[in-house]
Structures are given as C-alpha cells and as structure tokens.
Write a structure and sequence with these properties.
Strand order of the largest sheet: 2-3-4-11-5-6-7
CATH architecture of one domain: 2-Layer Sandwich
Largest sheet: 7 strands, mixed
Number of helices: 11
Order of helices and strands: EHHHEEHEHEEEHEEHEHEHHEH
CATH class of one domain: Alpha Beta
Number of strands: 12
Helix content: 40-55%
Shape: globular
Oligomer: single chain
Distance between the termini: 12 Å
C-alpha cells in the first residue's frame, strides 16, 4: 500500500513527491513485489529473493531495475517454459559450470555466486560459468554480498542482441554488463557498468511509458538514429564510448561462450554468465589490502576540485548513500506500474 505519512523523514526528500507516482515503504514495496511474483508462478522463497533484489535496485536509485521489471518478466517467453533444478554440470576444486535450469537470473546467479564464494573459501579462487538463465538484474547486488564476505570478484554477462556494432544496421550484441568488486571498509569498492549506451531495462521502461531518451542513443529498424525507445526495441542501441565500448561488449559476448551461451537455443548471442571470486589474501594480507584500498580512495577524494564541484565520488558511493536515505523515506513507484502490479496480486 502507498505510504500516507507513516514514515519519519529526517532528511529532505531525495525523490520529491509528484502526481504520477506513489510512495511505498520498503516493507510494502517488498510485499507488493513478492505477491506479484507469486502470481507469476514463483515459489514464495524465490519471490522473496527476487523482490529483495528489485527493491534494493529502487533504493539505490535505479528505478528501471526495480519493481517495473516484474511487468517485463511477465511477458518473457522463458516464463512459459518449465524450470528444472539448478545443477553443477562440470566441476573442479576451483571451477564449476552451472546450469541455471531456466530460472531467472535473480535466483540462478545468487546460487552461482554462492558456489564461487565457497570455492574461494576452500581454494582461494572460484571460477563460475553459468548457462540456461536469463535477466540477471544489477551485478552490484551479487557483488556486494561477495565483497562484504571478504572476497574480490569480476563479473561479466553476455546477453541477447540489443546493441548495434559501429557501422552495422542490426543489433548483434547484448548490453553485456562488466563489473568489479573489492572488499573494503566501511563499504566495498564496486564498479558496475553496462557496455551499452543505455541498458535494456531503461529502453523497455521508456517504451512502456511511451518516452524518448534525451539524446540519440540507438537506431530504428531502418537504421536511422533515434531517441525513441520503442523504435530502439526494433532497431538497437549503440555501445557506450564508440569503438572502445564496442570492443568491451564483444569481449564479454565472447566470454559468454565459455559459459555455454549457445546452450539454450543454438545462438552464440545469448545469456552466458562468468563470475570470478578470489581471496585477496592470495597476494597480500587481506587487512593490508583493505588499508591500501582505503588510502587510494582517500587520495582520489582528496584531490583539488574543479570550480563548482562539491565532491569527487567513487563508484557505488552514491548508491550506498542514497539507499540508506530511501530506507527511511520509501521509494517512488509509477502509479501505472503500481496499478498493474496490484492487478496481478
């Protein structure tokens, strides 16, 4: 249910109220997400895990990766296919190839990441590849758990075609996130990026609302540059940073082959997950590493600032900070999305 003044807000609202949104407490957002997911056939436990991820995304300021994602999931063809148990297909003391059983990534990646952590605990490193899953959500959600457990991680995911290579008329690469995590205090260092100019979730959400992007970031089905999200669904989006982003995107897509991205439908451009988890103590005492990381971050933040700049930020710093504020203030959810989710429950 929408919040109606029950929250005690000590800070100025980080997300001002407006007529198009309702404000939900964290508990109410979680409950709404769980109920909607159960209506799609999720078990209660899988609904809880998935909703936690979606609400965490909203708390961190990523609306497109929050509860609206449930509406997109409901229309995915994978939802019509049966799920099987998540299994290890091939394993060594330091590696595992995992079959995600057609479970959504929120469930399957959590499972794969746990395998990586356990291998890192016993062997110092865990290399995990996973096939047969889809829709992974924010890498930060998984990497934060890994890094708060004291481990470092590198994460890369190939996905279905969304991105148009420079000079091409058709999409051929996924948005292909690439992320790094290092344990630190009080918070880990996490850098999480998509190799596309905009993420597929942003395109889908803007298309749902009939909105355009502020800048040209893709092409329509005729290959013409466009700001229109619906047109990009038929055309494609650009990689970020020109040829450099394209190179990273292609590298991640190729890495996905190791995970068995071709397994689901015979196409080499599909979902493939790669997670490397390792113990910094393989190279130096963990405490020393965290101290040196803190020193590096302090050095960056202490640099002289350009005129008009209040703060030099570190990746994920904004998300961690805003998450704590929204825990008190609640999150805004589009009224249209809210109504659709209520209809599902």
């Amino acid at each position: 249910m929408p919040c109606e003044g029950e929250l005690t807000v000590s800070d100025e609202l980080i997300d001002p109220d407006n007529d198009d949104h309702v404000r939900l407490s964290v508990d109410d957002a979680q409950a709404l997400g769980e109920q909607a997911l159960v209506s799609l056939g999720f078990t209660a436990e899988h609904a809880r895990i998935t909703a936690l991820h979606l609400v965490d995304a909203a708390l961190s300021g990523y609306d497109f990766a929050g509860l609206p994602r449930i509406l997109i999931m409901a229309d995915r063809p994978e939802m019509k296919e049966p799920c099987t148990p998540i299994t290890i297909v091939k394993e060594t003391p330091v590696s595992a190839l995992v079959d995600g059983g057609n479970h959504v990534g929120y469930i399957a990646i959590s499972h794969a990441a746990n395998i990586g952590v356990e291998k890192a605990r016993t062997s110092g490193i865990g290399l995990i590849c996973m096939r047969n899953s889809w829709f992974g959500g924010r890498a930060t959600h998984y990497l934060e758990k890994i890094s708060r457990a004291g481990f470092a991680a590198i994460y890369a995911v190939s996905s279905t075609p969304t991105v148009v290579p420079p000079g091409a008329m058709q999409k051929a690469l996924g948005t292909n996130p690439l992320a790094f995590a290092l344990p630190g205090k009080p918070d880990p260092f996490i850098f999480d990026m998509g190799t596309s100019s905009v993420m597929s979730g942003e395109v889908l959400m803007k298309a749902f609302f009939g909105e355009d992007f502020s800048e040209v970031c893709g092409i329509d089905k005729q290959g013409e540059p466009t700001r229109n999200a619906s047109a990009m669904l038929e055309g494609g989006v650009f990689p970020f940073g020109g040829h450099k982003g394209y190179g990273l995107s292609l590298a991640v897509q190729a890495l996905g082959l190791l995970a068995g991205s071709r397994f689901r439908n015979g196409d080499v451009t599909d979902f493939g997950y790669f997670i490397m988890v390792f113990d910094p103590a393989l190279f130096m005492p963990a405490e020393q590493f965290e101290e040196e990381l803190a020193e590096l971050i302090a050095k960056i933040k202490g640099l002289p600032k350009q005129p008009g700049i209040e703060e030099i930020r570190i990746p994920s710093e904004r998300g961690f900070r805003e998450r704590e504020i929204r825990r008190k203030q609640g999150v805004l959810l589009s009224k249209r999305v809210h109504e659709r989710l209520l209809e599902m429950t």
